[in-house]
Design goal:
Thrombin, subunit H; six-stranded antiparallel barrel; 6 strands
């Protein structure tokens, strides 16, 4: 059950779409889909070696109120850092969605 006091973090959900200009150049644009408050459930981190480079993995789990605009293909912006949605679980009994997000290495 979510209460107002536990929802103290702001998440911005957006999608990246390709847009063609009048000259024909295709650029990628971030479209803001919705913003919401969230409750942080857990935070995990660690180091991972990929292609002989060390990356810091950062996983966060949040719980948000159900929104019909939500889907797993959205990008999440939290504290000016972009995250991809790894998994989501819709709980219809208390009208919430639990999401697990992973930091995008840039």
């Amino acid at each position: 059950m979510l209460t107002i006091g536990t929802m103290k973090y702001y998440l911005n959900f957006f999608e990246i779409v390709s847009q063609q200009s009048s000259s024909g150049a295709i650029t990628k644009v971030k479209n803001n889909i919705f913003n919401c408050k969230a409750a942080k459930i857990s935070e995990k981190g660690g180091f991972k070696v990929e292609a002989k480079e060390i990356f810091h993995e950062n996983y966060l789990e949040f719980k948000i109120r159900y929104n019909k605009l939500f889907n797993d293909n959205l990008i999440v912006n939290y504290n000016n850092t972009e995250y991809r949605i790894i998994s989501s679980e819709n709980n219809k009994f208390d009208n919430t969605i639990s999401i697990t997000i992973q930091k995008i290495n840039t």
